[in-house]
Target: tRNA pseudouridine synthase A
Amino acid sequence: MKRIKLTVAYDGTNYCGWQIQPNGITIEEVLNKRLSHVLKEDIRVIGASRTDSGVHALGNVAVFDTDTSIPPVRIAYAVNQKLPEDIVIVKSEEVPADWHPRYCDCEKTYEYHIWNAEVPDPTRRLTTCFVSYKLNLDKMRQAAAYLIGEHDFASFCNVRTNVENTVRRIYELTIEQNECEWIIRIRGNGFLYNMVRIIVGTLLRVGRGYYTPQKVEEILKAQDRQAAGGTAPPQGLILKEITYHSGS
Amino acid sequence: MKRIKLTVAYDGTNYCGWQIQPNGITIEEVLNKRLSHVLKEDIRVIGASRTDSGVHALGNVAVFDTDTSIPPVRIAYAVNQKLPEDIVIVKSEEVPADWHPRYCDCEKTYEYHIWNAEVPDPTRRLTTCFVSYKLNLDKMRQAAAYLIGEHDFASFCNVRTNVENTVRRIYELTIEQNECEWIIRIRGNGFLYNMVRIIVGTLLRVGRGYYTPQKVEEILKAQDRQAAGGTAPPQGLILKEITYHSGS
Model:
């Protein structure tokens, strides 16, 4: 029995997120079916990050156990032949039998892409959030600075969750502008439900002038979801990478 | 009666190209229907470039005549409310009554996007052509240089066309690499059927080492479609801009 770690990329447009659910097709479900088919075993993957409907990934991580004789690094190739075009296994590798994608010490990097122009670019509508109003980059960067470091992010957590500890650490939060495309990059040791999208929704209010940059400090202190901005739409979000410090 | 020029952007994925045809829905058809609905007249647009199925545009151009009282610059806004998300009118403006998008002296700029990596990026699968083999940038640039200027491009024209004059002028042909994404940019005074995609297919053979850069000069001289490389797939192609020297 071997434990296999997969690095998975997908376009989330046509899926009801990662996690198996009764109302629609999910990434986890498609992976389980295709892996089971190719490896001729009943495979159930465990994912690192349960991305929402419409959210994309270039580096989500999943593990599963198998008795297959296919060499670990070849599993990606074999399964990619059977996967739909919007899901790709980037890498497959063996990890220790006790390695778990959610219990390890890790860093996740997300990017949020905004298309800021007078009219949307239809070729980017499924991978960016379109914003037609003017944004103030300096003020957004000032606001972002308040979020870096270890904080209680209770104000930046969807209330439909009952996580006990809402303290997380953000290592990096940068905003970059390349013509119409704005990229907000966030790297941290873990993220609460909708945390990145609520941070982006809040930064957009700062960029528009509805909030001062200093308001973000108050929002953090409030520890109340009502204090923060809206949840930015899913299609702008992409899980870029998960880096594990211990284990694989 | 006013003549209105539209600048049109679209994601070509879900359309059978620009031109109306019996077997599937096209950009031209959707524009005619939505314009007729909003302006309450029977509108028939004339397009500058009949892009193929799966090809995208940020700046295709179309004109039509109308008696509407809606100010010309407001037509874009009014019709965008009724268009599907994958078609956007970027701009609407009045032009002289005799202005025609195909008979004017113009320059067209196309970009072809290649995703060169070991595995495809699923979020870019509909807007790039995935190439897994290594490409030699210097040799592709050497090959491209032979195509710049005025030439008979008969070797770079789909045979299912009976255009009389196959001489065209390419003003610019550059290849740029940004990590995995390669962008081939071509600006010219007109393009034959599939010309950009056949040029790209030929440059890819050079990049892979199947053709020498010098071979491109021979291909031009042959004036025979059989001499050139394959037709690169449509999803990597985007019509960026059409610039008119005379008229609007």
